[in-house]
Amino acid sequence: MGDRADEGGEGVTTSKSRNKAGAGLKIERVWTTEGVHPYDEVTWERRDVVMTNWRDGSINFEQRGVEFPESWSVNAANIVTTKYFRGAVGTPQREWSLKQLIDRVVDTYRTAGEEYGYFASPADAEVFAHELTWMLLHQVFSFNSPVWFNVGTPSPQQVSACFILSVDDSMDSILDWYKEEGRIFQGGSGAGVNLSRIRSSKELLSSGGTASGPVSFMRGADASAGTIKSGGATRRAAKMVILDVDHPDIEEFVATKAREEDKIRALRDAGFDMDLGGADIVSVQYQNANNSVRVSDEFMTAVENGGGFDLRGRLDGQTIETIDAKKLFRTIAQAAWECADPGLQYDDTINDWHTCPETGRITASNPCSEYLHLDNSSCNLASLNLMKFMRADGTFEVEKFVKSVEFVITAMDISICFADFPTEKIGATTRAYRQLGIGYANLGALLMASGLPYDSEQGREVAAAITSLMTGTAYRRSAELAGIVGAYDGYARNAEAHKRVMRKHAAANDAIKPTGTVATAVQREATKQWTLGNKVGDKNGWRNSQASVLAPTGTIGLMMDCDTTGVEPDLALVKFKKLVGGGSMQIVNQTVPRALRSLGYPEEQVEAIVEHIADHGHVVDAPGLKPEHYPVFDCAMGERSIAPMGHVRMMAAVQPFISGAISKTVNMPEQATVEDVEKIYFEGWKLGLKALAIYRDNCKVGQPLSAAKKNKAAEPAPAAEVEKVVEKVVEYRPVRKRLPKKRPSQTISFSVGGAEGYLTASSYPDDGLGEVFLKMSKQGSTLAGVMDAFSVAISIGLQYGVPLETYVSKFTNMRFEPAGMTDDPDVRMAASVMDYIFRRLALDFLPYERRAELGIFTAKERAAQLQAEAEAEANGADLTAMAASAPVETPAEPKAAVAQPAQEMADVAAVKPAPSVGSSTELLEAVIGKAADAPLCFTCGTKMRPAGSCYVCEGCGSTSGCS
Q1: Fewer CB within 10 Å, N- or C-terminus of the chain?
Q2: Could you tell me whether strands 290-295 and 162-164 are parallel, antiparallel, or unpaired per DSSP bridges?
Q3: Alpha carbons 454 and 569: distance in angstroms, whole number
Q4: Cα 962 to the chain's mean position, in Å?
Q5: From CA 774, how far away is CA 833, in angstroms rounded?
Q6: Residue 550 lies in a domain
Q7: Which residues lie below 8 Å from residue 595, measured CB to CB, with a gap of 6+?
Q8: At what angle are helices 325-339 and 297-305 packed, to 10 degrees?
Q9: Coil, helix or strand for 319?
């Protein structure tokens, strides 16, 4: 880790060198009461945090007697305890109270603020510390995760979550890139890099040979990221790789992940384990990075007008090839349609809003695309919980919001004074330009609670006004800090450019034409903040070259008990809520009844509508709910999901008021076409976005198979019916059902990784499997004895009524030697003998729909799925014409793969009890009757939910990105 700069280091100021005597900040109380410590205003309670795997009940984490406010949810307390408390569990050094965590962080910020001259007096420093403590205690805002991990501990004081690296056209630089990226991954953060300086594979080396090209070096970086992940990280390495659209290797870059997706399909159909986290997925390349193409206005104009576009050499800028711009744009959209990569970054728009162009262009972003600034730099983030500023009458607490932004932005700037960085280059740039990323969470919940549809003009007006007020206030405070502790070191050479961008923000604010009372009040205050801030900035300069971004807010959103993350709408109207003492329950989001009251519904109707949502998961046909109010309750997924352009329009509404960009993926339905992707990417450019990525449902193989989706007829059983089923199970006393003396059986010889054995399976004449015997060694050997005992245990369990699918779900994917190739055409690869045996038993004795849920198929069924998908894709161009004459059958349920008659499957679904679920995503799957494209958490195994352009686990707080 790079050492933090001492007095006199680049970009670091001290109270002696920069602060004018008595010119520090005067801090006024906003949330706190003089003479009363924030901790004394809340009721505290002791809890036991025991994290279990919901599938098998095993304990992942245990710490008893932790202390949290009574108002904090079980989930928030669990995540803070497991993720942020420092010290070894079971030792006296282990933190056990939220007080200790907050004090560790806030005391460090206060001490640094006093040391570097931010406060006028010790009394002001104390008020500042109390205000920060109150806001953190009441979940008004949160710093990003590295602050909670590192600040106030013996570890290096890394406070940044987002990093941008650089790489030049030399082997030394490329190897430095590998090393620097590895250090960042090791710390659990993410980094992005633009590879466009590297010579293309169509250019010559000085030795006379041909260059390898950037795509070849991506392989090494991808392998490095995968190795670090497998070396112990609880989430994948988060990285972004970018290539300019005029690079001669752009077509190869665009196709990289789409080609690998074809490879995944082929290996999957051959029996290899290609699921996320599967044993064989590591053989596929480029899976540890998000890819983005940096497009220019010149290119997009050529796409619009149908012209040619030049690809230029990296050394001399000479044209190497002229291509059809429309064709390349189509190739980009086709690849994104197939595998969600690449996204687009709009280069000229990004650099038009750049405050420091004299220092260098913005060429790259962090992995989630919200941080866009200079190479070799970093950004620390913090996010406000917007629902904490909504009054009971639906109005917005503008004054408290302004004051809260002041506190947060001040604390974030103080952190740069004491922070450590992974490399000296990143440390020097960050101290010189002091990039900050204030943002927010719970926008979707705020709009719904206000009775405003997410995809509506009024909803976008409120979002734009709040975002403008946040950034305007942040820059105004930054200008005030510049008068106290000095402008950022790079300001002098970039002063005119910085002022120009501030005027652009202010002009965009003036262009908001609010119609609602909330948007009007917020926008009026935003105008004041921009006017005052630019006036102060003209005199003092600004302390920070960047102030705001919209991050995913995955883990910290859960810490703040937010219903929605970042700029996202609600995921669904129903979700899981963890209960004290263990267990969980399904609830309707609390924003729903609040929204209904805002819309004027009486309490009796509110209760009836909420009950309908609890039963059905949506508002359609809810008793007494007016159809014109349906859009208020539209979500990211479910019966009424927000259209892709609705997400793009919301991004466009807030983008002019963000220093950086927005972490958000635009989800598209499975039946979306390549033309739809082209339209989204083109409109993103027209609407002034800086970056945009899409995800088409089920476009990746490393997700649940389309055929594994539950039949739509399989509606979850009503709650009352489920309770009755459970009640019967509790009262039921198992009775062993022995097999008759003469029973049908089959014996299969098998080989797993070269180890041979025999499996004999006996069944009841009319009712499935009842006995298994395994033989893998000579009689009398230890292994033979263990196999005999295991066979008896499984057989007795089956005869007492343990479902075969329970054994299958437990023993498949169990990994130990011998493992590897088998001689069974239906199960080509096995992670162990147990994995093979129970996959084989599933194929022989479980009906198709049960196996589909478990992801176990015969070779013939996999081939039929592939054929059906290919046929559907081949017919995709004719979908529009077909829709005019007949319903179109999507590839979601290929008939060729169905091994059971449709009526039989429907009958089975009708009597099947509600499926077991462990997260809000899985609950949503049960409600809507189809699988959601979300990875499983590497830590606890539950299905994650979207958070910006990555995913977060509701169970343990792990994320798949860099938030």
Answers
A1: N
A2: unpaired
A3: 7
A4: 9
A5: 10
A6: yes
A7: 448, 449, 450, 451, 632, 633
A8: 100
A9: strand
Whether 32 is in a domain gets the answer no
- Residue of 564, 699, 721, 797 whose CA lies nearest to 258: 699
Over residues 800-824, the pLDDT tens digits come to 888 888 898 888 888 788 888 888 8
d(CA 549, CA 842): 49
H/E stretch holding 903 reads: helix 902-911
Identify whether 72 is part of a domain.
yes
The pLDDT, as a whole number, for residue 272 is 77
Residues 6+ apart with CB under 8 A from 943: 918, 919, 921, 922, 925, 932, 934, 935, 936, 937
Residues 6+ positions from 807 with CB-CB distance below 8 Å: 794, 797, 798, 838, 841
513, 538, 555 - which closes a domain: 555
Give tens-digit pLDDT for 492-521.
999 999 999 999 999 999 999 999 999 999
Residue at 300 is within a domain: yes
Q: Are residues 387 and 532 in the same domain?
A: yes
The band of 953, judged by pLDDT with boundaries at 50, 70 and 90, is confident
Gap between the Cα atoms of 266 and 256, Å rounded? 16
Q: Same structural domain for residues 170 and 268?
A: yes
Name the domain count of the chain.
3
pLDDT at 594: 95
Return mean pLDDT, the chain: 84
Question: Could you check whether the bond before residue 248 is cis, i.e. omega within 30 degrees of 0?
Answer: no
Chosen domain end from 555, 575, 601:
555
3-state secondary structure of 68: strand
Q: What pLDDT, on the 0 to 100 scale, is given for residue 532? A: 98
Q: Are residues 143 and 172 in the same domain?
A: no
Looking at the structure, do residues 772 and 802 belong to the same domain, yes or no?
A: yes
Residues acting as catalytic residues:
366, 368, 370
CA distance 136 to 383: 11
Q: Which two tokens stand for residue 831?
A: 């992670």
> How many angstroms separate the Cα of 955 from the Cα of each of 66, 101, 236, 562?
18, 21, 17, 14
Please tell me whether residues 326 and 395 are part of one structural domain.
no
DSSP for 468-493 reads: HHHHHHHHHHHHHHHHHH---TTHHH
Strands 190-194 vs 162-164: parallel, antiparallel or unpaired: parallel
User: 613: part of which helix (H) or strand (E)?
Assistant: helix 603-616
Omega prior to 593 cis, within 30 of 0: no
- Note whether 201 and 341 are same-domain residues: yes
SS3 59: strand
pLDDT(713) > 50? no
CA distances from 540 to 395, 450, 491, 498, 661 (A): 34, 39, 10, 12, 26
Relative to beta strand 343-346, strand 691-696 is antiparallel
CATH number of the domain that residue 216 is part of: 3.20.70.20
Q: Which of 546, 552, 353 is nearest to 437 (CA)?
A: 546
Beta strands at 436-441 and 755-763: parallel, antiparallel or unpaired? unpaired
Q: What's the predicted TM-score (pTM) here? A: 0.77
Round to whole Å and give the CA distance between 943 and 926: 13
Looking at the DSSP bridge assignments, the partners of residue 859 are: none
pLDDT at 887 over 60: no
380 and 341 in a single domain? The answer is no
